[in-house]
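Technical note accompanying the year-one report. For the benefit of new consortium partners, we illustrate the data format agreed upon in the data management plan: each record pairs a sequence with a C-alpha cell string. No post-processing was applied to the example shown here.
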Amino acid sequence: MRETMKDLIKSTITSIGIALTIFCITGMVFDIAYDGNFSLDNYQFSKMVIGCIIVGLGFGLPTIIYHKDNLPMPFKVIIHMGTGCVIYTIVAYTVGWIGGTSSILHGIIAAIFQIALAFIIWGGFMLHYRNDARKMNEKIKEL
C-alpha cells in the first residue's frame, strides 16, 4: 500500500509538471505569434495555472488503476485517459483554452491536438515502463 501511494504521488507530481510545462511552452508560442502583445486580464493567467494543476491531477490520480491486476489493460487505459481527457475538456472550456471568442472549428482542432498530445505522452510512458519490464525480465533470466 505504501508503495502504491508513493507511485501515485510521483505520477501526480509528474503529471502536474508536464501540464505546467506544456502551458508555459504554449504561452511562449502565443506570445511570439502575437508579436509580444499577448495579454491576459481578469486573473485569466491565474485561472489557467489552476486549470493546469487540475488537468495534471486529472491525468495523474487515475494512474492508480494500473495497480489493479484483475482489470485488462484496455480498460485501465480507458479509465485513465478517459478521466484525464474529460477533465481536460471541462477545464479547457472553463478557462478559455477552447470555446470563447474562437470559432467552433478552432476549438475542435485545439481539443483534438491536446487529446492527441495526451495520448503521445501516455505512449511515451507506456514504452518506458515496457522497456523497464523487459530489462527486469532479462535480469531475472540471467539469474
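Partners are asked to follow this layout when depositing records. The longest helix spans residues 104-142.
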